[in-house]
Amino acid sequence: MKPKIQYLILILILVLGFTVRLYKIQNPVADWHSWRQADTAMVTRNFVKLGIDILHPRFDDFSDTSGHGLFNPQGYRFVEFPIFNLIHYLLYTLVPSPYSLEVWGRLTSVFAALTSGIILFFIVRRRTNPTIGLLSSFFYLLLPFNIYFTRVILPDPLMVTLFLAALNFNDLKRKNLTLLFGSLAILVKPIAIFFLLPVFINNFWLGVVMLLPFGLWRLWSHRFPEGIPASLWLLNGNHIRFRPAFFRWIFGERIAILILGKWGLWPFLHGVFSTLGNFGPWVISALLYLFTFASGNVHHDYYQIPIIPVIAILLSLGTWHLWHITTRTWLNRIVLIFSLVIMFGLSWYDIKGLFQVNNGSILAAGEAVDKLLPKDALIVAPYNGDTAFLYATKRRGFTHLPLPIKDLIDRYNIQYYVSVTYDRDTRAIMDKYTVLVEKPEYAIIKLVEPLP
Predict the structure, then answer these.
(1) Predicted local distance difference test score (pLDDT) of residue 276
(2) Whole-model pTM?
(3) 3-state DSSP call for residue 196?
(4) Between the CA atoms of 362, 364, 369 and 372, what dihedral angle is there, to the nearest 10 degrees?
């Protein structure tokens, strides 16, 4: 295949990959995994409101996320180094457009995914042939699972782009660029270490040096323990690793059904058995990651974002080999095409529900809060600890009632309580304090006792 034809096909794949990611791109942060998206978007929103401070990233939740009883009134958010947020901020502030901060957050991930598709093409073409390279880009950008999870406001798609860039330059023996992109990938999310295994195999000490910026970031982060969420449970907090339920959830529900739509297993498994040479370390990296963060991968489907490049490559290898089987050629090809079409269809059937807004009441309440309450008002917006409701109000405060409401008023100057459920806590607070708004969808209460 001539290079011009290769690049033309690649451009068509990229255009298609971009177009499908525009589906519901203007959704509010209230779809699947809205809590994690809200956490990320809050950091960028505070860059806009307070100015860029990459050494003190902040979000709006005062709650104890450390697991050590440490409330967080400064809103410190020491998870990933805020490279995603910096790019998100620059796109939002420097590119003239009518798009909201939320749209630009999603587009940040979309642009990262398109870049990953390009890098994947070059890596796979170099190691195999142009057709498999194009297929890898095609599957990476068009698997329904990856369409959704690379148009979310999360740092994970950017991490994938950065570790793919590092692997690409590692192949090309460009040590400085490998070091740069590998270090950035680990800073964005340290789980990138698993997927940089080929770098460690090729040059162990280069891999060690890649860890230094992350080590410095972690040393700095530990000065703010209230801003470091508890994370050890992600390893094996519920003791599920290697149990039958683990294999059912990861290799059954997630990979076989959600990502491969059942029918994609045939080319995928064929690819597994044909990749022991070129991409064996990649497969080992993905398995080590899945087994290490066993609880995280079972609890959260977005934890499978970094294994999608490996899955796309295995699908491509299997598809190419099945297409070139010499016995019963046309029958094999018809069955292969049918399997891939059904794969996309069944996977989309399971994925499409992730795009829907889960609770419109938090959006209505958030809009009312933003109109009625002072911009610096501190509130409680209980939503089972989910920050999506707090994000919708554009205010700071708590996402649940960790203490009696009187203690939150006295200790943290909480001024309002906003609820989308009329539960026992809400009723008790409404009985004692001043109700500003009471609607079927939500209530807004000023935490001042009414005059007798």
Answers:
(1) 61
(2) 0.95
(3) coil
(4) -170
